[in-house]
Input
Amino acid sequence: MDIDILVIGGGHAGIEAASAAARMGRSVVLATQDLSAIGRMSCNPAIGGVAKGQLVREIDALGGLMGRAADVNGIHFRMLNSSRGAAVWGPRAQQDMDAYSRWMRDALERHPGISLLECEVVDLDPVDGAFRLRLSDGRILTAAKVVATTGTFARGRLFRGEEAWDGGRVGEAPSKGLSDSLRRLGLALRRLKTGTPPRLRRDSIDWSLAEPQEGDVRPWPFSILTDSVQNRIRCHIVRTGPPTHDRLREGFARSPLFNGAISGTGPRYCPSIEDKVARFPERDGHQLFLEPEGLENDRIYVNGFSSSLPSDVQDAALRTIPALAGCEVIRYGYAVEYDAVDGTALHPTLEVRGIPGLYLAGQTCGTSGYEEAAAQGLVAGANAALSISGKDPFVPERTSSYIGVLVDDLTSIPLVEPYRLFTSRAEYRLHLRHDNAEARLTPLGRELGLVDDLRWERLVERARACEGLRAGLAARKLEPDRLRGFLESRGESVPESVVRAEAIARRPRVELEDLVAELEFPDLPDRMGILEVESGLRYEGFFLREERDIERVRRLGSKPFPADLDWSSLEGVSIEARQALAKERPLTLARAAKLPGVRPADVAVLMMRIHS
Output
């Protein structure tokens, strides 16, 4: 066999697929049309966000590359939702996108077990338990397993106003042959759409008219291997207004989004600016974020202004914003339409049903976002390696990771639009915090062969220190006077009698990091470990309830419904849910819970029906 695993595509899914398989001891060839485009950020120059940041932390906990790359090349770090509970905190880092791409290529070139190949795969055929792959130059390769991660390049077509041309990104050719191969193998393809906003020249913006957005004073890194990160730039905020919307509306008749030129479905939660104006006519403005794309280039990404309107319309609309009145556009926004496969055609391992050895990951599977793609790549690459070794597959559970939520949703819910992960999609998000990603997943990664000695030693050290801190907080008794100044300065009442330190740590206006410094606790874990202990104390009661729910779902989820159950007459279940259940007639509660229209309240009723 020439190759153990061939990974097609050098985007975020392909990178993590190749790295995961190689870490598990397999020989990997990553084939991509342009080696200089490895890890390129096609759209937003940032990594992370709400739910997405948790994914990056989980990828890192399993030994992946994205978190380390984001730490090294990050230029503006913020923790989103930090004013709310820790379950919905989302780390996000603006990136020097050129440096990020270079870092990723260098990491793959130095990665044991990975070879890079600049080529286009135009055809693949299953032959005698392996795959025969034909390249555009006529060469033939064979591989035991294939992971296809073609992203927006699968028959990609770009749109801007009346213009339309083939491409995966501006200036880069699409991949056409692979779509034909997948269709010939029996996979149904559908068209999806995404888009990108204009890039402006930095010096053409009047920054005095834009609101500065600083990074966090003490930013959080993504990787357990990173000791600290720093902010190196500012971002800024501006707003559209009625004049902006008027200019945009003037171009609607020329928009491929509205005149039928684009047939693909776009992401509901990341609409274009023209879509926002059309859908929300009552809004007099929309927030835009001006985000530098790097330290050594002069490009500013206009986050929130994704558009496929004609260039002259984009130009006129941008200039109605005071800070952008004299802006120079380096590149106008455009839309991309591409082929995708419904994730229900895949096993939860991301192997194609009916085609053993072929795995898909990334936007190819109907997702949106770098982070979702990278997470799928890791799962697909790991499972390809496990399959070669004859070992049990890696199926991440939705009760223990956002990766599990993503994969489970993707492979069980029919594709309607590009999938994006949210914290609201996770039933047990109190357990799936960014601060405990290593505790949840690194032991599993170690067992699978994804985690190296250094990462494992860091986790063992943190776990030991966290356990020591928990024991110390439980044992330490404090006199009221010892805490008087500390508590009063934070607006907290002073206890009337002796109290244990862990009770003080549970108070909402007390940060554990400050408390342990005040009390001079020895042998502390790192900052992330302290946050993990703090979250565990504050949400302990909720955790216990979630754990009971998780155990009940595990126990009842696989139990079958009665064969003669009349779904249409179920009491206490919503009409929408009854219709979905009557149509699909799921065999188990776990399957019923994944149907569109079946809400958590409906699942609770069904659970009682099974239990009775």
Observations:
- The longest helix spans residues 453-475.
- The first strand starts at residue 3 and ends at 8.
